Model the fold of this input.
Amino acid sequence: MSALWPKAVLFDLDGTLIDSAPDIHAATNTLLAREGLGPLSLDVVKSMIGEGTRRLVERAFAACGRTLDPAELSARYEAMVPLYAANLTGLTTLMPGVAEAMQALQGEGTAMALVTNKPDFAIAEILQHFGLARHFPVIVGGDAGVPHKPAPDMLFLALERLGGVSAADAVFVGDSPADARSAQAAGMKLVLIEGGYSREPLASLGADAVLPDMRDLRGAIERLQPGADR
Ligand SMILES: O=C(O)COP(=O)(O)O
Ligand SMILES: [Mg+2]
Done:
């Protein structure tokens, strides 16, 4: 890979680096059960992940026939935080090929950042647990104070914190429509990885590459280099 491109690779977390759905599923069903609701299946909860935990809680209650007003939703979100915080990694696994892909990029000196809609309370412990923390000098999480993906703002904030990398010199790696739309709005190259939590077929999202898993991430990024032979 050229030493000049890409200058940075930005990663999504849930459904891209980790399969966190089983722990999110368990916490969600505990929350619902307190009100005599649920349980929801793992696949249903997977389909609710991607736009942050508050949105997930709203969707979970809606799926049980409970439309929450903003104050009711805030109370349920506040109750979800300790439930999920108590079990962030017990059932969660690293997605295939992640460790190797991170190692390869790190070895080439590519700057990396994490850009996740996941709330901040959950991020550090998960990264630590899976040995990923050292790869991410920059983390933009769900409490960063800028609009969530699919808006491009979190990606721009990460590029700024990496020292002012331009979007044209960066690649975003994610699993969902929110990831696709944020990268496209930011003007970044986009790689989508199968096996995450997308509610839409990845082939329909206009990615520069769709990969079955992270194993060939480095090669796929190399092929996206402007001017590279296809
Ligand atoms: O918590 C979520 O809903 C999604 O998080 P992600 O942006 O890392 O996929
Ligand atoms: Mg995701």
